[in-house]
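Q: Hi! First time doing this. I have a protein sequence and I read that you can turn it into a structure. Is that right? Here it is:
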Amino acid sequence: MMLVVGLGEVLWDLFPEGKQLGGAPANFAYITNLLGDRGIIASRVGDDAFGDEIQQRLGTLGLEASYLQSDSARPTGTVRVRVDQDGQPRFEITDMVAWDFLEWTPAWESLAQQADAICFGSLAQRSPASRETIHKFLGAARPGTARIFDVNLRQAFYSAKALSESLKFADIAKLNAEELPHVVELLGIPHHGEQPSAERLRFAYGLKLVCVTRGARGSFLVSEFERHEHPGFRVQVGGRRRRLHRGPRSSFSPRRWARRHERGRQPHRRLGRKLRGRDSFVRRRAVAPHPCNDSLGPPASRWIQQI
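A: Yes, that's right. Below is the predicted 3D structure, encoded as structure tokens:
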């Protein structure tokens, strides 16, 4: 069983119809659990009602809360979410919340050293304190640990320097089609179409894999040896049928990749073929009832059994 850490923000997505537990790294840990490995969320919540609810919800979802830090001075993170006509979520993110002040502790150092894979994002690095802690966590991990960078260009909470530093840590990068041209241009990489830009980004930072989600147009994966496209699946959003790709939900399980990576093999020549079945299966089975890329929600139990 692989130990996979979702490092960064855990928060409440506040939809018009109610709140939903969210945060891309937290969602990655949740999906990891559904796929049969051990997902752990490393984050920070306020000492408040929202923070207490997060701890309770994690227990309900079968996720450990022992690496969730508590902050008595700052509130639990929240995000107001609306969904546009193309099915893409739009966010209004509260600033100066608990996960902006992640602390480097002996417990987190031990967790980093045990991790087989770590998913981290750009949003939690908007504050210097959390950015420093995330870098220490990644630096403390074993050389064979898979590091997955989930780009989240939210509001003005990113910079070229932060993106470049994160990509240097990463083995895998995931971003959406709207973010791709902006990211490559910030990094001084020419943008001439989606797949060429993804390939240049992969080459510039020595990444093993780049995953680009394209909303209603599905997604594509680029490795050193292969490309793979998927059209997505039709799901119900706001009473209308739309073809969507589900962001971190449809990221492949790091289990097979990390195991092969850890053993010193060269898995990438066959990576696309391995991912095709997993990528398609996870998209069909692990879609939650909310249209936000980063929200956690349990699929039907029969889906879990099939996974």
